[in-house]
Amino acid sequence: MFRVLQSSVLPVIVLIFATSVVSLATPSAPIAIRPIPTTPVCPLKNMACCVNVGKVGEVAVDEALIKAGLIPNPKDNLVGFNQCRNLTVSTAFCQFNELCCKDNNHAGIVALHCDLLRGPIIVDPPPPPPPPST
């Protein structure tokens, strides 16, 4: 009797398995595919967080470069300035401008030859309170 039971159970198990494989292979809803992020790869040693970002020739950028003892050079193009700090694994959070800079060794005053990875995190202010009811 055990052999008869075993042979009659086997097709049922195969049928259940086949049905579950088919149902997994055919999704019932469309699958959304997210695009691959296009953020450039930046070595950790080149990552910086600066309060401001600008181009050489802008007054604030040129003043920061002069403060750092540098002569403004149009080849520097995008410059991070104002409280720049290197990002490391332990300080990876940047609420300002996250940059990839080839030269960020200027005492936190400026970072040169930069690409902007991410702009500042802006937190929306709370909505105004409703007007008082009269």
UniProtKB/TrEMBL annotation:
Q: Which UniProt keywords apply?
A: Cell wall, Disulfide bond, Secreted, Signal
Q: What would you give as a GO molecular function for this chain, any one?
A: structural constituent of cell wall
Where is the protein situated, by its record's location annotation?
A: Secreted, Cell wall
Name of the protein this chain belongs to: Hydrophobin
Q: Which family does it belong to?
A: Belongs to the fungal hydrophobin family.
One Gene Ontology CC term in the entry: fungal-type cell wall
Q: What range does the record give for the signal peptide?
A: 1-25
Secreted as a keyword of this entry, yes or no, is yes
